[in-house]
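Batch queue: ligand-bound targets. Current item pairs a single chain with magnesium ion. No template structures supplied; prediction is de novo from sequence plus SMILES. Inputs echoed for audit trail.
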Amino acid sequence: MPRTIAVLSQKGGTGKTTTVRTLCDAFRRAQVPALAIDLDPQGNLSDYLDVPPDAQPTISDVLSGRARLPEAIHGEVVPASLDLAETELMLGGRIGREMTLRRAIADAPERYELILIDCPPSLGLLTVNALVAADEALITAEAQYFALQGTEQAMQVIDVARDTLNPDLHLLGVLLNIADMRTVHSREALGSVRERFGEAVLPTPIRASIAYAESAERAISILDHRPDLGADYLALADELMRRLGGMDDARRRLAATR
Ligand SMILES: Nc1ncnc2c1ncn2[C@@H]1O[C@H](COP(=O)(O)OP(=O)(O)O)[C@@H](O)[C@H]1O
Ligand SMILES: [Mg+2]
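Prediction returned. Tokens below.
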């Protein structure tokens, strides 16, 4: 069974989609087969990964029972589109609504070692579905004033998922993202999150740079566009594999590309 990681935060703009996208690139370098699932109706991940906007079926079709997960894999991604917002409303009225993605993921092809889920910018039913489907949760927080508050809220939803439907859910880490360590804001945010969550906080924040916007615009991974900045994500991928355990060969392969 692939191991599933949900990437979540209580709002948009914390770098979830960039993180999922770039981790997929890093895992590919380490020859770790990874599937990305776009669970955001905005479909940014699908865009980043160059899925044609009219690709069918999508995650909406999977969640509403019109398609099985393997049929919705395009390249290495299960895309989302705006109709996912409607699907979320429809799911709300169903028994077992929190379990829908978990059931769908049971069909994921065995060839994948990891599945990364890119959550929408809220802690609603779709994010709960991701947490019930996942083995691991990765929280992203923008290194700014409200980082601590946002992380606390995401942590509460993880606790609820664990206490109710997914007792095995594990916190993989808290990632401080889009951090400008030259500013007092970013340093304070990192300090307060570390004080509160200790070892759960990933050791290296992802540095802020305008190069991320360029990289998205040109559809070139930051790993290739700016290897000096991409090093943050290679370090992150390595640390996540260390925390996941059992991935030493992949860690060595990744190190060999650095
Ligand atoms: N490290 C970074 N530095 C600067 N900008 C970033 C960084 N990571 C992501 N961004 C930009 O911030 C915006 C939000 O990122 P995104 O990954 O879409 O966040 P989310 O999925 O949480 O909404 C995007 O425009 C993205 O290009
Ligand atoms: Mg996003």
